[in-house]
Amino acid sequence: MSAGAVFDPERERVERVLAFAAHPDDLDFGAAGTVASWTAAGVDVQYCLMTDGDAGGFDPAQRDRIVELRREEQLDAARRVGVERVHFLGHRDGFLQPDHTVMEQVVALIRRLRPDVVLAMHPERDWTRLQRSHPDHLACGEAVTRAVYPAVENPFAYPDLQARGLEAFKLRWLWLYAGPAERENHRVDITAHVDTKLEALRQHLSQHPDLGRMEDYVRRQLAEKAADGGLPEGRFAEAFHVVAVNAEDTIAGF
């Protein structure tokens, strides 16, 4: 368990969430059940996809339209969990870097939407399952983490944004997914939304030549996360590393 402020869903008021991912389908694997629970409660959740996923897929016949296809799949998947707005940054799959071009895009979007929670992939590598730690995943997490502190809240960072009316503000919570298990400090019981999560994942047909095997794996992982969190048998959970960016005891300043 990670030290730090604890997210209490009974006390915290969440009205808007901005969720980042490296590729189409990353959010559906990592957080779609939680997203469905938020939208069902009236929370405004928006997605931001950093790459177009142009290096994904298995069928050579789809190469000419893989970007268009994966965008369509992500939009369909997002709708299944109640997300209507998806932002696409359009970077090349496999080439994402946490540089200032990407960071400024992230800061601009966070300042524009001013969410209560920013959700992103974990910037730390998971050595127990290397597939979770695709270089783009790590770059997504690093870019967002660098952006939320200090740039989002520093009016002198990326001054062109301030000039455009995108004023600095203090983000409360950063939720990270797809990271090392030892970093996880918060679980969300998604049992009521597990079928919706799987329906979202089914929209990414270009990525799953064996849907049945994929679904069995996802259910098993969700059941293990629930058990690890002390939930009763038959429950499903998603796990996150939740970080309080600006807690009640945070000292002001950069």
Automatic annotation (TrEMBL):
This is PIG-L family deacetylase. The keyword Zinc applies. It holds the Pfam family PIG-L. InterPro entries: GlcNAc_PI_deacetylase-related, LmbE-like_dom_sf. PANTHER family: LMBE FAMILY PROTEIN, N-ACETYLGLUCOSAMINYL-PHOSPHATIDYLINOSITOL DE-N-ACETYLASE-RELATED. The lineage of its organism: Bacteria, Bacillati, Actinomycetota, Actinomycetes, Micrococcales. The keyword Protein biosynthesis does not apply. Gene3D superfamilies: LmbE-like. Keywords: Zinc. It comes from the Bacteria.
